[in-house]
């Protein structure tokens, strides 16, 4: 039997791979006296995805350090956050979360008997808790409540009062769960500092706060339940995992915003203390890494190829997902999944005497629009008005794209610039060269005609998803069928605003870093 870890070793296990700790001295003082009591909460909203393995991996660390760990299924929070979980689905989604989180923990070898599972509504509707909500609301300013929830609560044009209550409830959870510390992502930091400021005003102790970094999604931005391309669902089939990893942003030598590397660092390494790169003998054969730093160094120096990295992650990830898929293959859990997350595309049948129409299905999320980086530009060998470009969209190989921009944009202005690329048009030959996408541009309305490529926000990564405001969710079509004219129908409502922002029906084109724009063509069209 291994000897129990000492305070210093416990501190290392608890804090490794974290981005920030608030209250380090208090944490060490507690560890010298007794075991730490800590909780992690998750609002029961969208389906958990593979990034949830990051907090699961830390929970395993906490248990190794002897902590008493509580997992909170924050069902009331899910409703308060702009009704992300409708009231009628709240119970179903909470049951789904309970089953899937337990399945995840089992898949990484965490003993469930050492954990305490609690629902928010088990205690948040009590007289004492409700009174504390009122007490807190009498001392918290509107400004502080809004600021605290800015990174977590969904931001909308006309915010609901419930979003202002959210940070206060999360702060009170620390007292009512009787813990020493709360663990969450660094996006929770403002709520954590809010709790440190306001709990003492009710006579309650200030807690320790432990923060994980935000792990980049597969597109290079935050992994999100509402952005299909950025995440792998826990119940995705093996072929879907392969497809999403193949499209993942993983530029050779680039270790910044690399979701594939981040997953290895924050999930696979802490679980196994090693990672094996699988490759054919002619490329050097398999190589085992016992430190993440050595793997990152080899990737940065291009000793490890992105394709081998993705294939190795695919194998390791499927080993984690297999027991979860197996558990959720039962009729009972299949029924629960479908009830908790009904398919929105399954429209209700038309009433007698009416026709079913498809306009509601022609929505911007069906377009696979991404940030692209132009790697090379050449004149088309058989057409003076066309360029042939190689454009990086975060895939293993750049795409070949033919654009009619010769008369409008000098070659040197395209080279190395970021562009907006429509990626799921059916490839078509243009004067003998197959074009695998369309560079979206702003066009002037009058004569002489002017054309400017759309500009993603500075700092975007090649392959990052571009979406229309309010249509962040939904999986784009694999390929737009020409006969359905989905792009053409949507394009009819594309335009450039008076502020030079690209829009669809007055809703902005966005990335995680901001709005897509053009240089000067106010009021123009987009094609």
UniProtKB/TrEMBL annotation:
Residues annotated as domain TRNA-binding? 363-467
Gene Ontology biological-process annotations? response to stress; tyrosyl-tRNA aminoacylation
User: Per UniProt, what is the name of the gene that codes for the protein in this document?
Assistant: Yars
GO CC terms: cytoplasm; nucleus
Query: What family is this protein classified in?
Result: Belongs to the class-I aminoacyl-tRNA synthetase family.
Taxonomic source organism: Glareola pratincola
Compositionally skewed regions (Basic and acidic residues) per UniProt: 348-358
Q: Which UniProt keywords apply?
A: Aminoacyl-tRNA synthetase, ATP-binding, Cytoplasm, Ligase, Nucleotide-binding, Nucleus, Protein biosynthesis, RNA-binding, tRNA-binding
Aminoacyl-tRNA synthetase keyword on record: yes
What are the transmembrane regions? none
Q: What is its main location?
A: cytoplasm
* Protein name (database record): Tyrosine--tRNA ligase
**Which Enzyme Commission number(s) are on file for it?**
6.1.1.1
Q: Which stretches of sequence are listed as region Disordered?
A: 336-363
Q: Which GO terms describe its molecular function?
A: ATP binding; tRNA binding; tyrosine-tRNA ligase activity
